[in-house]
Write a structure and sequence with these properties.
Strand content of chain B: 5-15%
CATH topology of the largest domain in chain A: Arc Repressor Mutant, subunit A
Number of domains of chain B: 4
Strand order of the largest sheet of chain B: 2-3-4-1-5-6-8
Radius of gyration of chain A: 21 Å
Structural class of chain A: alpha+beta
Distance between the termini of chain A: 35 Å
Number of strands of chain A: 8
Order of helices and strands of chain A: HHHEEHHHHEEHEEEHE
Largest sheet of chain B: 7 strands, mixed
Structural class of chain B: alpha/beta
Largest interface: A-B, 50 and 62 residues
CATH superfamily of the largest domain in chain A: Winged helix-like DNA-binding domain superfamily/Winged helix DNA-binding domain
Shape of chain B: elongated
Oligomer: heterodimer
Helix content of chain A: 40-55%
Strand content of chain A: 15-25%
Largest sheet of chain A: 6 strands, antiparallel
Number of helices of chain B: 31
Distance between the termini of chain B: 72 Å
Strand order of the largest sheet of chain A: 3-8-4-5-6-7
Number of helices of chain A: 9
CATH class of the largest domain in chain A: Mainly Alpha
Chain lengths: 229, 701
């Protein structure tokens, strides 16, 4: 069956519902919200849309189910997700958590051809142990080995790295201004560039760009992991 | 349409800055618009009255805001206008390419209890970026009709107005759409109960505002108590400040609607152009050279391109007065003749000779703002300007100040926060303007050897900039003390401005200058004319008429005429003020002649040169007058020459600057404070320099 291409967000929902509906509790709005780290109000809105597209089905206060069409899409994505994750852990030797995150990001865009070639490369290496060993020693010396998460002020976040906002540690006008511009706990943020004279900085948040002085950015506590972009 | 006719419907236009709100307003309002200020503040008010479908409509373009929490004058005005009950309907202009943050404002608007209509602006740009909108679903989620519009070509404005009228007629206020979570909702209800006199919508809104930590002096004490208690409870429970939690919920709503009603077919296309441009324009190495080049372009556009029309205006006015002088015999009503020729025409010249510069400046500013580069100027320059006690956006006014202080002060409009803006206005006159250059051009060659001239000129300019920095820091430490306004500023996507919106913007500002600053400049110019004319001298120490009649050479005629003029000027109020000032300026090394020229310079700085010529009996002089230089060399020491330049640099700015300051601060207090403060600073600095020089024996020989 040919299904019209869904948005990445819709695919994430389907995948999450599929995963949760396999538990005894079933997929509930609150759990979906927690799993995707969004507001429950967002989930209900999204579910409404999925329902209208004939992909999901739910009753108020009940568990969410998938229609056959929705299940097929979800399983397709889950399949891609697993294939990608396996490639990242087995072939690239990335840590479980990094593989998971990277798979989440790529599962929507990876075409069957990309997946096929990835699988082919994995098989090729398994069939040639001497090459596999060489590759393993090379990747062991390469940088980017998984490091623990780092908590810092936004002013010290390296440019281009995505981080999660933990808190806005300041009172008064500045905090109000920052949160109303969308810098709230839980949101993803990245330093896009630093001004040529070293201050202020430009950050990307909620799909737009914001500039602030480093002294202001220092109040925004973020968490990031070296090696993960 | 008659402006006094009562209006049937008031439509307010609300939205984020950079949402294209004003260009949409320009399309709808066209030539009907009127620009003014809101009462008591310097926030620009744009409104228009027009008729549509037989109804008299008033449309108000509210200031662009990110929030309605009333943290800035703009937010307070937007909020008060929306709540004033005058508004039949509020249209929110939403930038379709930046839904999430735009919808955060929607979250607050839905709580205001007014009928809402949404203009999904730049939806074509968003569609080109791969976004698809489900308008029906969106309007169901937001609680008001959503109409796609395009501020660049006016598409959708007719549908928008029709939807606004329908919504206003239905009169159904949008009710709060944000669910803050069970716990917070319970607290909101508990606080809202205490607003006994209010209806449900208003009670909820005020309860949320209290919980958001906003002052509400009219709230019942009980409501404030409950709010304080609930805030403490919710902050303990949530582990973070309550205003943060409320903002999270609003963004939750925004994200929900954005996720729901939009299909993002190709998220990677988005903002690729802006990113590419910023990679060049904000480049670590090339960003600053490009910036310097662009600013050089702006400066030249304003002053080099403005120079010829300025000269046309001046020569046109010169010809006009020449014709008048020729047609109007000196013997009939000589006073009125002088008033018209010297007072009125001179005054009008003082007003409109700035006009080419001002039009071009606003053209440049409109272009920089509409393209999105203005925010980058602040981004690039903030480090330096912040060290000076100013804001990144103060750079442009200071740069323009090198040409002329009047447009520089008008250029401070781009600064959002009052503290930054007022500081910039008050220090802008310290930057040496073009008119002061004529003073330096006269005095420096008169007193300094050729190899020192360049250095002295540099020194004077640097002294001005240094004074600006010190005064800015002083102001920030005293008058404008307190928490500095956050720099946190959007870097909007680059957009190509339309000529229409740039043109309207330019014309509006120029018209406001003519109306407001122009009348003041004209009035003071006429006053100065009167001071320079009265009392009139009728008896002279010598019989000049006979001398002129008997003179053998043209030079002798000129000498006699110049001496006569000097006597006349000495006798007038300006001459007397100059003399009366002598005790006050003697410690600076100035005599009454310098005092007279300084009083005259208040009309315009370059008048100093002309007046110096007259008081030294050399006739009206200009900056290249070698005979005046010789006289000055004979009468004053180089140290006194330097003192004159320093005093002219720092002292009371010209009439036009005072008028512009009054206009932009909306207060005579600041304008007169500037006058007095700058004169005091000039006196002190000149005193120190002169006395130090005398003590060290420098430049006195």
């Amino acid at each position: 069956m040919k299904i019209e291409r869904l948005s990445a967000k819709a695919e994430d929902y389907l995948e999450t519902i599929l995963r949760l509906s396999e538990t005894t509790r079933g997929a509930r709005t609150g759990d979906i919200a927690a799993a995707l780290d969004v507001q429950p109000s967002t989930v209900s809105a999204a579910l409404k849309s999925l329902k209208e597209q004939g992909l999901a089905d739910y009753e108020p206060y009940g568990a969410v189910g998938l229609t056959p069409k929705g299940r097929q899409v979800a399983e397709d994505i889950a399949g891609r997700h697993v294939a990608l994750r396996r490639f990242f852990t087995d072939t690239l030797g990335l840590a479980q958590e990094d593989s998971e995150l990277a798979a989440c990001g790529m599962e929507h865009d990876a075409t069957p051809l990309v997946l096929d070639r990835m699988a082919l490369l994995g098989e090729f290496l398994r069939d040639h142990p001497e090459l596999l060993d060489k590759w393993k020693s090379l990747r062991a010396t390469a940088k980017g080995e998984r490091a623990p998460g780092v908590e810092t002020g936004l002013d010290e976040l390296p440019p281009g790295v995505r981080a999660v906002v933990l808190a806005v540690d300041v009172d008064g006008v500045l905090r109000k201004r920052l949160v109303e511009m969308g810098v709230t706990p839980g949101v993803l943020i990245a330093v896009e560039r630093i001004a040529p004279l070293g201050d202020p900085i430009a950050v990307e948040v909620r799909g737009y760009r914001l500039s602030m002085r480093k002294t202001e950015a220092a109040h925004i506590r973020v968490k990031w992991r070296p090696g993960l972009i | 349409m008659d402006a006094n006719k009562p209006t049937d419907l008031v439509i307010l236009l609300a939205g984020n800055p950079n949402s294209g709100k004003t260009s949409l307003f320009n399309w709808i309002a066209g030539a009907h618009q009127h620009v003014g200020n809101y009462a008591g503040v310097t926030v620009e008010k744009k409104s228009a009255r027009f008729a549509r479908a037989g109804r008299a409509i008033e449309m108000v373009d509210l200031p662009g805001v990110y929030s309605l929490l009333a943290a800035s004058p703009e937010e307070a005005i937007a909020r008060d206008e929306i709540l004033s009950e005058r508004a039949g309907v509020v249209i929110q202009v939403i930038d379709a390419t930046n839904l999430e943050r735009n919808l955060h404002l929607t979250a607050q608007l839905t709580e205001m209890g007014v009928p809402l209509v949404f203009a999904l602006n730049m939806s074509d740009e968003a569609a080109a970026n791969g976004l698809e909108f489900d308008l029906e679903l969106m309007s169901a989620l937001l609680g008001g009709p959503v109409v796609p519009t395009n501020g660049n070509n006016g598409a959708g404005t007719a549908e928008l107005l029709a939807a606004a009228q329908r919504t206003a007629d239905a009169g159904q206020p949008c009710t709060g759409r944000v669910f803050y979570g069970l716990d917070v909702e319970a607290s909101i209800a508990a606080v809202a109960e205490r607003f006994e006199g209010d209806d449900a919508v208003s009670a909820r809104r005020r309860a949320i505002a209290l919980l958001d930590g906003l002052p509400d002096p009219h709230a019942p004490a009980a409501a404030r108590d409950v709010a304080a208690r609930e805030t403490a409870r919710l902050e303990k429970r949530g582990g973070r400040p309550l205003d943060v939690q409320l903002a999270e919920a609003r963004y939750g709503f925004a994200l929900g609607v954005a996720t729901e009603a939009v299909r993002d077919a190709s998220p990677h296309v988005r903002r690729a152009r802006t990113l590419r441009l910023d990679n060049v324009l904000l480049h670590r190495v090339w960003g600053l050279p490009i910036f310097v080049f662009l600013m050089w372009g702006v400066f030249n556009l304003v002053f080099a391109l403005g120079e010829p029309p300025m000269q046309w205006i001046e020569s046109g006015l010169g010809e006009l007065s020449a014709h008048l002088v020729a047609a109007w015999p000196a013997t009939t009503a000589p006073l009125l003749r002088s008033l018209v020729v010297d007072g009125v025409i001179g005054g009008v010249g003082g007003v409109i000779s700035f006009l080419p510069n001002i039009l071009l400046l606003f053209l440049a500013i409109a272009f920089l703002e509409d393209t999105g580069y203005m925010a980058r100027v602040a981004f690039l320059m903030d480090r330096v300007m912040h060290k000076m006690g100013l804001h990144g956006k103060s750079f442009i006014p200071m740069l323009i100040g090198l040409g002329c202080t009047v447009p520089a002060i008008l250029a401070t409009r781009t600064l959002e926060h009052k503290r930054d803006r007022f500081t910039t206005i008050l220090v802008a006159p310290f930057v040496s303007c073009g008119a002061r250059m004529t003073i330096y051009a006269l005095l420096i060659p008169a007193f300094f050897a050729p190899r020192w001239r360049g250095w002295v000129l540099w020194g004077i300019y640097l002294t001005g900039i240094l004074a600006a920095i010190l005064v800015a820091r002083l102001l920030r430490g005293t008058v404008f003390r307190g928490e500095s306004a956050p720099f946190v500023m959007e870097l909007p996507p680059y957009r190509m401005p339309t000529w229409r919106s740039v043109g309207i913007h330019m014309w509006d500002r120029a018209w406001m200058y003519l109306q407001k600053a122009g009348t003041v400049i004209l009035a003071i110019s006429i006053l100065l004319w009167a001071l320079g004319t009265f009392p009139r001298r009728t008896e002279f120490s010598r019989d000049y008429a006979a001398e002129i009649a008997a003179a053998a050479t043209p030079a002798a005629v000129a000498a006699a005429e110049a001496a006569r003029q000097a006597e006349i000027l000495e006798h007038t109020a300006i001459g007397r003020i100059g003399r009366a000032l002598e005790p006050a300026i003697r410690p600076l090394g100035f005599d009454w002649r310098v005092g007279t020229a300084l009083v005259g310079a208040f009309a315009a700085k370059e008048v100093f040169v002309a007046q110096m010529g007259i008081v030294h009996s050399l006739g009206s002089a200009d900056a290249d007058s070698e005979s005046l230089r010789q006289t000055l060399r004979a009468r004053y020491t180089p140290l006194q020459g330097l003192a004159m330049m320093i005093f002219c640099l720092l002292s009371a700015p010209c009439v036009a600057t005072i008028a512009a300051t009054k206009r932009e601060t909306n207060s005579w207090g600041w304008a007169l404070g500037m006058l007095v403060g700058m004169t005091a600073i000039a006196w002190l600095v000149t005193f120190v320099v002169y006395r130090l020089g005398v003590w060290l024996g420098w430049g006195v020989g």
